Amino acid sequence: MRKVYLCNMNMKPELLLPAGNVEAFYAAVSGGANAIYLGLKAFNARARAMNFSNHQLPLLLKEAHKKDVKIYVTLNTVIKNSELNELIQQIHLLNELHPDAVIIQDWGVSYIIKKYFPKLTIHASTQMGHHNSAGANHAGKSGFERVILARELTMKELRLTAQYTSTPLEIFVHGALCYSFSGMCLFSSYMGGAGANRGLCTQPCRRMYDDRGNKAYYFSLKDNQQASHIHEIAKYGIASLKIEGRMKSASYVNRVAKAYRMALDNPENLNKSLSLLKDDLGRDKTGYFLDGKVNDAITHYPNTGKLIGIVINSDNSTITIEADSLPETGSRLFIRVKNRDEQYAIKVRDEDRRIGKNIIIRFDKQVSKGSEVFLASTKAEKFPSKLPDEYVKLPAPLPRKKEQEIIRDIQNTKTHNQNRETVFLRINDLSWLRKIRLEYIDGLILNLPSNEWNEFNPDAGFLKDNRKKIWIELPKFISEINAEKTRFFCKNLCTKGYRNFYLSHLSQKEYLPKEAIFATNENVYVYNDAAAKMIENQGARFWTSPHENEMENLLAGKHRNALIPMYYYPELFYSRMPVDIKQDSEEVFTDSTGAKFRKRVHDGITIVIPEIPVALFQYKQKLAKQGFNNFLIDLCWQNPSSNTLKKLMLRLKNGQQVQPSNTFNFKKGLK
User: Fold this and answer.
1) What distance in Å separates the CA atoms of residue 289 and residue 153, rounded to the nearest whole number?
2) Cys-Cys crosslink for 125: which of 105, 145, 423, 584, Cβ 3.0 to 4.6 Å?
3) 600-632 per-position pLDDT tens digit
4) Which of 291, 318, 132 is CA-nearest to residue 222?
């Protein structure tokens, strides 16, 4: 029996607001925030926000604490090996300035903080992918004092997760939604090296795609809104209700803060709260999975703002807009160009003419008639844009000697380079078993959907004879509803002698019997030696290099106990959200550049992959010379074929390039 934790139904959740600049900070405080999360210039997942300097942080802390408001600093990106020295100094600074918590994604950051800066409170970012009690409990054991859950949970899953963990939980209740699970989107990175996990997302889910001539915003989600559910959520003992929006205006932050403060303090104010939220100038709203309604969660308007009119005339100097209500001076407008994946931003000035329901605005581009016009922001209440003019002396940097001590520790490894080459295969279709000669490989990773696990016969002779080579892969998403089923599944296979498990989340070790052996897949991000050290200390046999990793970063690390994916179709989107792209296995959809992609559904999860694979065989000799000798050929999303497998094995052996293919970020780099 699992331990049940009693929820504190009398505890009012914290209201947590975003701040991307000083004005938004004061707007959040004015709106009734109990806590504010914000990023400094480096290592935060909203690198395109204005963010704050190191010198501003002590002033922000002083201003917030005067109002009994907490400050959480985001340090929630993955870290490259070349950045570890800077990271250590940044953590030292935070340790000296004492924010109320630091929000992190990278396992390496948690290792450094818990060992060398243990007074810092850490929260697990939603980008770590926690979505069940196993994740929350493991995070609690690993030193995290709060877990920010994935946005994709149903109300039942949230209730059960809270019931089976003592770790405080935080959930998003308002703001933008990513199509993919946070932390699992590789699309932006694939399209140009600007990784979402590096804070540089270019929002491919907001782009238009073409499915056999049907152009639409297939992956663009409406904004999350849970105001109607916050009192039900509070009954589960959720510690914090979080608003998304570090890229949003101060007026947005203030309005949303007031609305949720009003609803949270008094349920009778819910209708007033909802009325305020109607004019937050975000996107259309969805209750998403918590509301149990995802059929209408896709929006046809990917940009934020309120639709107010259309363009009725345009020349090379002005555009004429017919609007339901004329925007006031100082307002910002977005014009979505008709039949094109393009938009323009315009600010309304005093000199722009108003005639009846029309407004004529100076603009030097031709815009198609019928283009839609959105109100993005208004001339709203002003908040201070500067902090108090006080001199702040920052703490001295961490002594070089101590910094180097930390670096030496994280670079020290218990594992040894092996000279023997090992080759692993990975499959997600049992049909491959008839094509594979297990005596010629060192490991076979089974990434099967549930219906195929039901067909899997662990007592089959050829499998039983090779069970030490078989690795059972657990999926990236395991619903809390399936927790005990997963635990029984793992125990049953261990009883049959299948003891090797390939984990998609470090917390999945919580499902394994004591005698099990585990390694981690590419979804357990290891971009630096500190993360490798952490995974090693957790007991993993080996870790897998992330799909969006670059060669320069990989070679810069000292740890070599890595499995290197040499051939694979990267899962660019990994989403619980269905999408209406009607294609069979031979057809593709395209983006505006003509790049081609395929949609797949695996155990109810929508996955988007590129049309051509990533192949790195040509770098094998260089990797081997640098001490990397464990290689993976990933046959998932590849039609079963003995001939294909034979060709791939031969090319890996000879270090020969595969065509057609690309190298993702491996050569060009991850920004």
Assistant:
1) 6
2) 105
3) 999 999 999 999 999 999 999 999 999 999 999
4) 291
